[in-house]
Amino acid sequence: MQCFPGLVLALSSLLGALALLQLSLHLRVPSRYGKHEERLVRPRGRLPARCAWFLQELPSFLVPALLLALRSPPRLEPLGCRLLCCLFCWHYFYRTFIYPFFTRGRPFPLQLLFFGMLFCIYNGFLQGYYLIYCAEYPNDWCTDIRFTSGLLLFLLGMGINIHSDLLLRQLRKPGEVTYKIPQGGLFTYVSGANYFGEIVEWFGFAIATWSLPAFAFAFFTLCCIGPRAYHHHRYYLKTFTDYPKSRKALIPFVF
Ligand SMILES: NC(=O)c1ccc[n+]([C@@H]2O[C@H](COP(=O)([O-])OP(=O)(O)OC[C@H]3O[C@@H](n4cnc5c(N)ncnc54)[C@H](OP(=O)(O)O)[C@@H]3O)[C@@H](O)[C@H]2O)c1
């Protein structure tokens, strides 16, 4: 395989367009899973949350890992390139092999799982293909301010995301499906603390890679889970009369 810059541009632009579509679809109506799932008389097909999250996220890990393994000769230089590819795989290793096995979430709709998987194949290919076949970085990219500040943001965002998902998980005993008011960590300031972490993480990744595909993905993440944080916030305000009034939806002290 070789690098086709036109392909990268086309796939990144399409990702940007998909982000805007997500935003327009979900600003008013939340994505129908978890606390926003419609309670239908005859529920559509659903899969246990563990299985669904594992299957959905697996391509995001496998596709770039396969691209990396299949590249001949293997790409070993520069170090910055290898590290960036590893960061992406690291996040999806967590999301595929760790997160699903601890979740206490409700069963997940099959239809959304199908679209989620398609998206993970698409994005896994775009990010992996760009980093493994196209990206060119100087040998000292690891000391560039964009790499170091982006990496710091990535790690900070990942830490917030994992910690917030842990706090949500601890709200339930095994087998419970009720909703409670999240407390502690960044939930003190926002209803969508896990989403805030994920958005910071992917913008950090975009800065560290300084690439169009990664910025398109960070934008997609913002448009996908930003509205979800807003809907979670409204849900909490409607459901719990004692919900902290100073808590914002997504960005501490701002929104
Ligand atoms: N990069 C992207 O575009 C993208 C897109 C989607 C998700 N994600 C990431 O994937 C992870 C999960 O996303 P999600 O949309 O499922 O998050 P979520 O709606 O906040 O739910 C996360 C987990 O916590 C449970 N939960 C949520 N609020 C709760 C409460 N008040 N009381 C008790 N349990 C509660 C949920 O159970 P239920 O399932 O029963 O509601 C679910 O198991 C997040 O870290 C998110 O950042 C990333």
Number of strands: 2
Main sheet makeup: 2 strands, antiparallel
Helix content: 55-70%
Shape: globular
The overall average pLDDT, rounded, is 94
Can you list the strand order of the major beta sheet? 1-2
**Gyration radius from CA atoms, angstroms:** 19 Å
SSE pattern, N- to C-terminal: HEHHEHHHH
Q: Hey, roughly how much beta strand do the residues contain?
A: under 5%
* End-to-end distance: 45 Å
State the low-pLDDT regions, or none.
none
Q: What oligomeric assembly is this protein in? A: single chain
Spell out which ligands are present. Answer: NADP nicotinamide-adenine-dinucleotide phosphate
Q: How many H/I helices?
A: 7
Coarse structural class: mainly alpha
Family: Belongs to the steroid 5-alpha reductase family.
Subcellular location: Endoplasmic reticulum membrane; Microsome membrane
Transmembrane segments: 108-133, 145-164, 202-225
Pfam family, one: Steroid_dh
Textual characterization of the structure:
- The chain crosses the membrane at residues 108-133, 145-164, 202-225.
- One of its GO terms (molecular function) is 3-oxo-5-alpha-steroid 4-dehydrogenase (NADP+) activity.
- By secondary structure, the protein is mainly alpha-helical.
- The chain is built from seven helices and two strands.
- It has helices spanning 5-26, 49-70, 79-102, 110-134, 145-169, 193-209, 212-239, and strands at residues 46-47, 108-109.
- The mean pLDDT is 94.
- The structure holds NADP nicotinamide-adenine-dinucleotide phosphate.
- The site of NADP nicotinamide-adenine-dinucleotide phosphate has 23 residues, from helix 5, helix 6 and helix 7.
